[in-house]
Amino acid sequence: MASINSVISSDRVEGTDVYNPNGDKLGSIDDLMIDKISGQVRYAVLEFGGFLGIGTDRYPIPWNVLTYDPGFEGYVVPISQEQIEGAPRYSSEAVPEYDDAYSTSVNRYYGL
Amino acid sequence: MASINSVISSDRVEGTDVYNPNGDKLGSIDDLMIDKISGQVRYAVLEFGGFLGIGTDRYPIPWNVLTYDPGFEGYVVPISQEQIEGAPRYSSEAVPEYDDAYSTSVNRYYGL
């Protein structure tokens, strides 16, 4: 079965806005965390908060919970503003090891 | 089984040098082509040729044929200089549809 545009470039994903289903902008995608062996994108890292790019935090979002919404011209994550405020995050200067324990905790937060 | 640093960020992959097994530098990774539904990285797009970044061509390399080599501080693709010169490519202004036909032709070139 032929499929058109079945791929998207990482350049296009990076910088794309992320919303919740209400249309509240949560932030934008800073970069992607890719499983080294399988090449699977595990997380899109959401950049949010701070001022003029200074002091922004990073929120790993499991790829599976992102849906692209053409109407919003961005991704939608099905969580509330309160849920994103309590979500796992780190500052850009303190990127954690994405080991099994960390990945499991992030996945659990998003219901996976 | 705990695994440390089992992920790599797309920011780190982009710009990484790519070599053949002889240590000849083929180019560097420009960006990644990601399957929209599964989130699987299908291709690393190699940037090569041109002068001062002008006129460079893009060579999609299946993720599966890239191996990171700490000695080279870059990725290794197990093909010869002649093979890369004959490899599927496009100019940055003429990115093709990555449909099944195109993907199949690229994968076949790399023996997949």
Q: Can you tag this structure with a few keywords?
A:
homodimer; 3 helices; 112 residues; alpha+beta
| Secondary-structure element pattern of chain A, one letter each | EHEEEEEEHEH
The stretches of 5 or more residues of chain A where confidence is low (pLDDT under 50) are none
Number of strands of chain A: 8
- Quaternary structure classification: homodimer
Strand content of chain A: 25-35%
Radius of gyration of chain A: 14 Å
Biggest interface reads: A-B, 37 and 37 residues
Number of helices in the DSSP assignment of chain A: 3
Cα shape of chain A = globular
Secondary-structure-derived class of chain A: alpha+beta
What's the story with the biggest beta sheet of chain A? Answer: 7 strands, mixed
Mean residue pLDDT of chain A: 88
End-to-end Cα distance of chain A, whole Å, is: 30 Å
Percent in helix of chain A = 10-25%
Strand order, largest beta sheet of chain A: 6-7-2-3-4-5-8
Can you summarize this structure?
With 112 residues, chain A is α+β, with helices and mostly antiparallel strands.
Describe the model.
The structure is a homodimer of 112-residue chains. Chain A has 3 helices and 8 strands. Chain A has 112 residues and is of the alpha+beta class. A 7-stranded mixed β-sheet of chain A has the order 6-7-2-3-4-5-8, with no helix packed on it. In chain A, a hairpin with a 4-residue loop joins strand 6 and strand 7. The model of chain A has no long low-confidence stretch (mean pLDDT 88). The radius of gyration of chain A is 14 Å and the shape is globular. Chains A and B meet through strand 1, helix 1, strand 3, strand 4 and helix 3 of A and strand 1, helix 1, strand 3, strand 4 and helix 3 of B.
